[in-house]
Amino acid sequence: MVVRIQDLPRRRYGMPGNAACPGCPEAMGLRYIKMALGDNVVLVIPAGCSSVIQGIWPKSGINFPILNIVFASAASAAAGMKAAFEMMGRDDVHVVVWAGDGGTADIGFQSMSGAAERNDDIIYIVADNEAYMNTGIQRSGLTPYGAWTTTTPLGKKEHKKNLPFIMIAHDVPYVATASVGYPHDFIEKLRKAAKIRGFRYIHLHAPDPVGWRFDPSLTPKVAQLAVKTGMWPLFEYDRGVFRLSPFSKPYKDPSKRTPIIEYLKLQGRFRHIIDKPEEIKKLEEYVDRLWYWIDALEKAFNPSEKARELLSRHA
Amino acid sequence: MSVGKSARGPIVEAPVGFFAAPVSHPAPGAAGKTGTWRDYRPVINEEKCVKCLLCWLYCPEDTILRREDDMVYVDYEYCKGCGICASVCPVNAIEMVPERGGLE
User: Fold this and answer.
1) Is residue B89 part of a domain?
2) What number is the average pLDDT over the span B2-16?
3) A279: in domain
4) Is B90 part of a structural domain of the chain?
5) In a domain, B47, yes or no
6) For residues A78 and A97, is the Cβ–Cβ distance under 8 A?
7) Which position has the higher pLDDT, B57 or B2?
8) B25:A13 CB<8 A
9) Contact A218 B28 (CB under 8 A)
10) Interior/surface letters B5-42, b for 16+ CB within 10 angstroms, e for the rest
11) What is the pLDDT of residue B104?
12) What CATH number corresponds to the domain at position B80?
């Protein structure tokens, strides 16, 4: 089911006048959730930029009912909320966790892992802007190698944690990666996830003009370059079948990928490694390793009918 | 408090006035008139526009609005002037014009 822009209703999905910075990818992502899932959505938001985007009482700058909760317990709060909705007989409500990368990969990881293990019926979306942007650009587990943050002034020395692969290993029904540069793809994946029951995980890549040090008008372009260079492959794992998304398929062939330098030179956070070929080589090796994983997963999760039946036990 | 039964258990009525915490409601302008943040103003050239709606899709603020015939216009009251609309436009129909400043 392909999403066409013309088919989306004319209504106003976002909430203008919120406190997001100009060019904010999270404000874009929240609009796409509304386009995809409609009004029957409740958000659970741990500490992060999205707690600030809401603005000041009595108004809220996000067009959803929201439960604001502490960093470490977003997924468990959502699981409890879903149980409460079930008790009320409301099966039509989607409980969506909208967390940042710090609230997912580092601080919120235990509660998310627990919710995935229990296969709670929630949608977990990570708005991955690759650092703790709200508190002042500190390094997180999802910051890529070489990136400047205020706590890694010479560039981070570790690679980005491959969270989607960890979630596939949790054996949950649906895991996908998306990007704000490809809204059609994100909306399509959200609609697909909404039809599945159980723990659904979508990792949304969200380039942030403030923390990544680029011009706010380039948010979609940087997001698209991350996909075109192979740094951020778009794929989905749907009940035992692993698929590359159409936008990422050409970049399986390394010769078709845009050189990584095109992606790095737009961002001020990579300024100190741009003229160091040995550092860029490390990022290239990371991309090659990432695609080796994807190749292996594609081969492994292309199962026979019987194996597919076994793997789709959550459905 | 049980008011009925569903397949999964009893249906419970939500308690009224249970939460004393202040609740915010979605409304435009939670951070004030954000149009005042703008340095550059997007101006749409309606002759060049091909109605692809990419600016409408990518605008983070939802300040690009659609008319009945899919022509777009800008809500200058809240537009923050990030320039995403101009950068995604395939036919360069949106120009970023410097603001003149409010106190003239």
Assistant:
1) yes
2) 66
3) yes
4) yes
5) yes
6) yes
7) B57
8) no
9) no
10) eeeeeebeeeeeeeeeeeebebebbbbeebbeebebbb
11) 42
12) 3.30.70.20
Is A287 within a domain? yes
Paired tokens of B41: 């103003």
Which CATH number fits the domain that encloses residue A48? Answer: 3.40.50.970
Whether residue A118 is contained in a domain is answered as yes
Task: Please give the share of chain B, as a percent, with pLDDT higher than 70.
Answer: 76
Cβ of A17 within 8 Å of Cβ of B53? The answer is no
> Which residues of chain B lie closer than 8 angstroms to A64, CB-CB?
26
A207 interface with B at CB cutoff 8 Å: no
**How much is the ipTM here?**
0.89
Among partner residues A28, A61, A217, which is closest to B86 by beta-carbon distance? A217
Residues from chain A contacting residue B72 (CB–CB below 8 Å): none
Mean model confidence pLDDT for chain B: 84
Q: How far is CA A86 from CA A83, A110, A124, B10, B11, in A?
A: 5, 24, 18, 9, 8
Please give the Cα distance from A24 to A86 (Å, whole number): 34
Closest CB from B10, B57, B83 relative to A216: B83
Gyration radius of chain A's alpha carbons: 19
pLDDT at A37: 92
Percent of chain A with pLDDT over 90: 79
Domains: count for chain A: 1
Whether A12 is covered by a domain: the verdict is: no
The residue that leads in pLDDT, A302 or B87, is B87
Beta bridge partners of A200: A123, A174
Round to whole Å and give the CA distance between B36 and B101.
Answer: 9
Residues of chain B in contact with residue A224, where contact means CB-CB under 8 angstroms, are none
For residue A200, give its domain range: 25-311
Q: What domain range includes position B55?
A: 42-98
Structural domain count, chain B: 1
- Gap from B104 CA to chain A (nearest CA, Å): 25
